[in-house]
Amino acid sequence: MNAISQDGSLKAQLELEISSIIKLFTSFARSGYYSIADREKKQIERGEGKMDNLKIGQYIQHLRKATGMTQKELADKLNISFQAVSKWENGDSLPDVGILVQLCDVLNTTTDKLLNGGNYAAVDRRPMHLADVKKGFECIEAVGELFGENSTFFTGMIEGINTKMNIDLLSYLKVPTTREVMYAEVLIQGILSGRSVDITEIEENFENPNMVEVIRDYLRKTDEP
Angle, nearest 10°, between helix axes 130-147 and 176-192? Predict the structure, then answer.
């Protein structure tokens, strides 16, 4: 009886840990998008970008009004001030990269369409395959095996990933369930940068149905209607 109880407790603890990882997953994916959007904003600052603040603002205003929301109502959904929304719509500033995905969810649009003022930009639609993602992680692990786990090349690479994503990559890769979360993270970053992913391939090879649904949701948010 004690063994059964203990086994049930361990199972419940594992399920709780996996659930926590899944809840954090969206923020991991957005961290990948952060680097994309942040790079574009820096290009704008250097005069190299092509984003039109006013056009983006007008598109945000159009979508907001189409949903029947006031600036304050939109601001409340994003936990920001209505003045920030007003600045976007007047072309005085761009939405912060940390809330772009949430903003697109609320306005029922996609990140690439919003950043192009209602138009779709030409993006890299090369297919991204799960087998390649798995091979990529195997290559990361191979660096530790070939160079040594104490090599500054290996430790520097791992520390950089851990710091950027606030995770313990090597620990995640040791457990099948969390390793799969890392696969999904890479696929979602690819989706957000314009790569195409075959959802059928994901359905056939992923063990966790929650991860499949997260990937499917991001595909829906970034695909053209």
Answer: 120
Question: Which residue bears the tokens 């040791």?
Answer: 174
SS3 104: helix
- pLDDT tens figures, 161-195: 898 878 899 999 999 999 999 999 899 888 877 78
- pTM value is 0.56
Read off the tokens for 166.
Answer: 């606030």
User: What is the CATH number assigned to the segment(s) 49-115?
Assistant: 1.10.260.40
Q: Are 190 and 197 in contact (CB under 8 A)?
A: yes
CA–CA dist 172, 135 (Å, integer): 16
Extents of the domains making up the chain: 2-39+125-222, 49-115
Token duo for residue 158:
């791992």
Give the angle 26-30-31 at the CA atoms, nearest 5°: 120
User: Where do runs of H (alpha helix) occur along 46-124?
Assistant: 53-66, 71-78, 82-89, 100-107, 111-115
